[in-house]
Amino acid sequence: MPEPTPAAQGLRGSATGRTVHAARVRGRVGHAAFWIVIWALGLTGLLYLLLPTLIIVFASLTAGEYIAFPPQGLSLRWFVRLWELPEVRVSAWRSLLVALGASAVSIGLGVAAAFPLVRSSFRGREALNAFLMSPLILPSLVYGLAALMFVSAVGIPLSIPVLVLSHVAIIVPYVIRTTAASLVLLDPDLEEAARSLGANTWQTFLRVILPNLLPGIATGGAFAFISSFDNLTVSLFLAGPRVETLPIRLFAMINFDLDPAAAAISAVLVVVAFAVVLLAHWALGLSRIVRL
Amino acid sequence: MASAPLPDLRLIDVTRRYGPVIAVNRVGLDVAPGEFVTLLGPSGCGKTTLLKCIAGFLAPSEGQVVLRGEVVNNVLPHLRNIGIVFQHYALFPHMTAAENIAFGLQMRKRSRAEIAGRVDEMLRLVKLPGLGGRYPHQLSGGQQQRVALARVLAVEPVLLLLDEPFGALDKKLRVEMQIEVKQLITPLRMTTIFVTHDQEEAMRMSDRVAVMNSGRIVQCDAPGAIYDRPRDLFVADFMGNSNLLDAKTLGVRGDRLRVVVAGVEMDLPLGAGEIAEEAVLLVRPENLALTVVPPPDRPAWPAVVTFALHAGPLMEYQVVVAETWRIRVSRPRMLSDGGKVWKAGDRVAVSILDEGAVRVFPARSE
Predict the structure, then answer these.
(1) For A14-53, what is each residue's pLDDT tens digit?
(2) Which of A69, A22, A50, A86 is nearest to A263 (CA)?
(3) Nearest to A278 by CA among A225, A236, A238, A230
(4) In this structure, what DSSP letter does residue B187 have?
(5) Structure confidence at residue B272 as a pLDDT band (50, 70, 90)
């Protein structure tokens, strides 16, 4: 007869066997508890973030005369009313235009800035990096005021281009960040491979580097677009009476007559933001199919 | 040779500094057309820096890089026509295999029809016909390696640089690819510089091996010569397994050097190089025999086997002489005499098979 192994002895109920069994049960309970805690915290957090947004979107569907939750009956009448308000329509188109323009400019500048920040090494690179990221940290209200003072000191009249450029300053860090992240992951040998195959610096960038940065650029561009489209604080200073944006219109409507149209604008802003994120996600998914 | 052909690559005193650090130190090297030369050395020996100087990604601080008679120090990499195969292949991930191969030709503004023909030819050459439409991530490591090679060969470079191209492959595939690459390159008479830290790989692939240490080429010779006649202790130690045993020189008698090694006196043929009183004896593990009784005609060390390892075709032993000197011995398992396999604890006599393959170096001054 072969000697029973220690584990087999444990199963037969010796003193050490019971201790081992208890330790295994404790391990299993601890493992389960960990995942319960993680899921509970995660779901609570998600609910906390989403609930107010869901409430305002739901409230915008009211059939009644006042903002209320739960809504009194369901209808799209406040969205129809929004569409009939010319100032809302105009400000919505303007916001879209400003956000598109500002995102386009920040993609151009951000991608260009990310390149030396990642690939070159020079004195003060970290400092420059911090400086370019500072609009994310700086209170945007302060930036708005500063930009207004600058623009009026230089003597440029408030206009859509001025608004676009002021948005660029606060949204460009998103593009730099995500592009830099993509660039860090990109094998530097790809550049040397392209160059040794006869590509000059421009061709290397356009044919090899840029296509591989698209996911990062798309993500950054989506964040930039949403930040510009939703921006109130900077626009408040630089929009002026003649170039009102959608968030400013919303702010005015909430201030003066809080009717469900305000909730409807909020719902539109929420839907646009989600649509842009989904679009970026979809574009990323496509490029991933090609990449990975 | 009076009419020696112009070397494809000539390095003249190439030096590269990073601040006070000298990464490459006055390296001179001629590579003849069609020659396969390996830069071999441990990491940090400067071989990759030297490669980048040749490719044009780094400018030498001093010295000249000469390609087919032309000094190219100030020529940008994309105008040098040097092909590089990278360790991780560096295939463009957003392009198919065929697009990768076509890239260099497109940069050279070849016609569409010519490019298509050349891409097909290259895919057949590297035995990947029909896989041109795959993206790099859809190819195995070995297949990616072949695409990388096809991409470089498509543009017919003056010089082929292989930067540790087999480092990412597992051992079996690595050996297969070594043979395959060698078979592919040899008929093309492609002048090649190969960078590796793997001495077996270097010996297997090369016409000549340049062993590098701290920025210098220590010895540049045919693989057999480097292995059998290393110039110094570094090369000896780096090329393959070796036993380095402290030796004391007793004197020279005619063409024989009398030394005492691990307590045993022996006469060795007097080789080249200086003679120092304190010396180090290099003997390869495969140059030692184990017997029960000492052979009558040769000196032998009495020893005890401390461990015995199976290494497939070989048995690897460690034996200890007088409880002090450890010696590694490797013996083929299939021998005409039956290839006796020893086990730990066996008492044996260790003797040198070929005295001509033993080297004596002055002891390291450090």
Answers:
(1) 667 888 999 999 999 999 999 999 999 999 999 998 898 8
(2) A69
(3) A225
(4) G
(5) low
Question: Which chain B residue lies closest to A211 (C-alpha atoms)?
Answer: B94
3 state SS of B134: coil
- What is the spatial distance between Cα B88 and Cα B169, in angstroms, rounded to a whole number? 9
Q: Which residues pair with B321 in a beta bridge?
A: B303, B325
Other CB atoms within 10 Å distance of the CB of residue B130 = 8
pLDDT at residue A288 above 90?
no
Taking every pair of Cα atoms in chain B, the longest distance, rounded to a whole number of angstroms, is 76
Give A98's pLDDT tier (boundaries 50, 70, 90).
Answer: very high
Q: Say whether pLDDT at A253 is over 80.
A: yes
8 A C-beta contact, residue B269 and residue B257: yes
Cβ(B267)–Cβ(B250) below 8 Å: no
Name which of B84, B147, B155, B195 to mutate to probe chain A: the one with the most chain A Cβ atoms within 10 A of its Cβ: B84
Tell me the pTM. Answer: 0.80
Q: How far is CA A1 from the centre of its chain?
A: 69
- Closest alpha carbon within chain B to A214: B94
Instruction: Write down the pLDDT at residue A134.
Output: 79
User: Which residues of chain A are within 8 Å of residue B84 when distances are taken between CB atoms?
Assistant: 192-193, 196
- Say what the pLDDT of residue B274 is: 65
Strands B256-261 and B264-269: antiparallel
Q: CB A198 to CB B104 under 8 A?
A: yes
Mark A152-191 as b/e (b = at least 16 C-beta within 10 Å).
eeeeeebebebbbbbbbbbbbbbbbbbbbbbbeebbebbb
d(CA B37, CA B210): 7
Q: Count of CB contacts below 8 A, A vs B?
A: 70
Per-window interface: A 175-234 vs B, CB < 8 A: 187, 189-190, 192-200, 203-204, 207-208, 211-212
The radius of gyration computed from the CA coordinates of chain B, to the nearest angstrom, equals 25
| Sheet-wide strand order for B82-85 | B82-85, B159-163, B192-196, B36-40, B208-213, B216-221
Whether residue A247 is preceded by a cis peptide bond, meaning omega within 30 degrees of 0, is no
Per-residue burial over B5-40, b = 16 or more CB atoms within 10 Å of its CB, e = otherwise = eebbbbbbebbbeeeeebbbbebebbbeeebbbbbb
**pLDDT per residue as tens digits for the range B127-175:** 999 999 999 999 998 899 999 999 999 999 999 999 998 888 888 888 9
Does ipTM exceed 0.85? no
Distance between CA B341 and CA B332 in Å, rounded? Answer: 10
